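Page 47, continued from p. 46.
Same chain as before, 337 aa.
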Amino acid sequence: MLLARQALAPAEAIRRLTPLQGQDSPAPYLALAARLDRLARDDLQAAIESRSVVKTTIMRLTLHLVAAAEYPAYAQLTRQARMRAWRKTYAHLDEAGVAAELGAWLEEPRTNDEIRERVGGYEGVADDPSTPVVFARTLLPLVQLPPAGFWRDRRRPSFIVDSRPLPEPVAAATLVLSRYLAAFGPASRRDVAAWAGVAQRDFAEAWARLSTVSYRDDHGTELFDLPDQPLPPASTPLPVRLLARWDQPLLAYADRERIIPLEVQPLKLTLSGDATVTVDGRVAASWRLQREGDAVKLTITPHVEIRRSAGGEIRAEAERTARFCEPDARTFGVAGV
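Result:
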């Protein structure tokens, strides 16, 4: 979708794109705006309100927006490594009994503070802010209730258990692997494990089950894709895009050099979460937005030399993004290019 914007409903777009980073609440909106035609912020908020999209902690224990129909598969896959650790740490607990008891309690909305107090009652749970919360999020598929996920929502979320049964682990891994390859292939086994934040062994049987084709990159690394997927030639023109904080391409591959040039990597943009600009499919700059009264300015900070011919396209994309972020502003300016 970064090659050409499409007209899709938010839930279907997220299903195809795989879950969108939601650590920063505007980020999924900006990620979709870079990929969809005529998206309004209310479109995604309506999908969250209707629960066709849910906000939850999954890959790499970070917040994402997920197409609700496929959330159980992502939840099952990403809990596997954490459940191995959970079972070692809490071997003295009755896993099924605790899951049933805690799951029944979480059928009603609960805050993190309430979860800490309740889970802290189990023997062996450390008395610190994170351990009881991770305990619950590992054992049970918890989602945040709206308005969590709304544009710039700052309220403390409430959590509820997703009561749907989880698919068996291999089926879950196979579905997630197919979605990943459809969105990001060709890619290596290491890439998909790093993206999901799981061990490569958690995908082992899925690789055996899923039909794939393979290629070799310039370094001899084997890359996999789904059969009959388009493979644009290297000469394909790639449009300028303003990406969200922690946008997918920056985190989709273990080899960050596929999108982040070596000279940019010392900036550690995948840690800082700076919003980025891609030119010719590679990170070339960061961007930030400022508003004073009715005036909005979007500033581009280049990190590499940018070809002069890209300036007009960057300015057009920057103004489009500024208007999406601040639709009620009266003037829009672009600086830095």
